[in-house]
Amino acid sequence: MLFGSATAAYQIEGAWNEDGKSENIWDRLSHQKPCSIAECHTGDIADNSYYSYKRDVEMIRELGLDFYRISLSWTRILPTSFPDKINEKGVEYYNKLINELLKYNIKPMVTLYHWDLPQKLQDLGGWTNSLIVDWFTDYSRVAFELFGDRVKYWFTINEPRQICDFGYGVATMAPLLNDSGYSDYLCSKNILLAHAKAYHLYNDEYRSKQGGTIGIVISASWLEPESQEYAEAAEEARQFEWGIYANPIFSKKGDFPEVMKQKVAVKSMIQGFSRSRLPDFTPEEIELVKGSSDFFGLNHYSSSFVYRNESVYGYHKSPSLNDDASVISYKGSSWEGYSTKIVPWGFYNLLTKIREDYDNPPIFITENGYASPGGIEDDDRVKYYRQYLDATLDAIEEGSDIRAYTAWSLMDNFEWLHGYTLRFGLYEVDYESPERTRTPRKSAYFYKEIARTHTLDPLYEPDMTVPLSIDEGH
Fold this sequence. Notes:
Number of helices: 16
Protein name: Beta-glucosidase
GO molecular function, one term: beta-glucosidase activity
Mean pLDDT: 98
Number of strands: 13
Family: Belongs to the glycosyl hydrolase 1 family.
Strand order of the largest sheet: 1-2-3-4-5-7-10-11
Radius of gyration: 21 Å
Subunit structure: Homodimer.
Organism: Euphydryas editha (Edith's checkerspot)
Helix content: 40-55%
């Protein structure tokens, strides 16, 4: 199994309007008044990685990792959003970063889209406009042409649920639209088609000469029934949360989950709509999307309990995805954790379900991590990683084909609407320092030992008196 860590462009790069980069939806949102983001934070400078990429690579070397998962900024490469103008300075930055990684035998794993849509495309409807399927495919072609000679691991789109449900449905992510039950479903269909078009473009035109692999990244929590009487409700909730993206790609039949199609159609009819609010795929589209991923890219953080009784009726805004699913979720009162609850058995159950439901696809765990308020002695994060890696091992022993594990995140970064108030980093970032100094936490020492030994020692305790340094060969 490969071990790595991850970041995303808007969260670390900074240089938001420098060297030809144009505005994206997070630039727009973070500059709005009154502020939508905690403490009026922005990603204008973030971790200053546009200028500090060599230090970032040095950190990967200190940890002894196999790969570094990054994302490309669409507006840094294509400032008009389209391929008519390629920004050489932006291309140069990514070339320098990719080449620096390869110089030290670190595999670059590259995400094409991690939430920072060009504002110009958002003004045209963003992911609710079906033309975005072509816009994204054009952008993907440019990336494959520019970087595919060296990048052998591609991720098309990171976390469709957060883009669609949070961005278009419940207004907790840019573009902060509150239109659940309509826009989020349109977004879901267009994202799946955009992903599939980019996949087939790579498959048909680039795979034979570049020799890479490509897939999608789906976020999934584990939804556990509060008691057995809610087993069906929990299963339906899983389909509404992540089956909506996994089923069309990884199931034998393809298409949106049957239970979703039925429930949304019935609700829509009762509500007086002429047709289902969940858009149909044509038979051709079903075939296009089905099988369009070389692996199951999985982001997972935590779990919830779910139930469904008479109290759910009227609980959610109607119409909405949550009303369509008709369940209520909550965190266990005994679960440990600050912002991220530590529920390793949920991760094991999720990995098992993916293996059983989708014929054991290769899994790349592309994000797994723990949010804290900060501090170098991050014992809770160490506990989280220890227990979640143990759950991963259990799934592997039962036959799950897990190829990679990615700690989120390499360093503290701009955590979306939370700004810099939530910290996920193996390295702490000093936001008072102009250099954005990075300092390894206890979890960095712990993760380095995992990557070095490929062994989970329950008694291992890091010695933080010894500076974290680069081992020979890295």
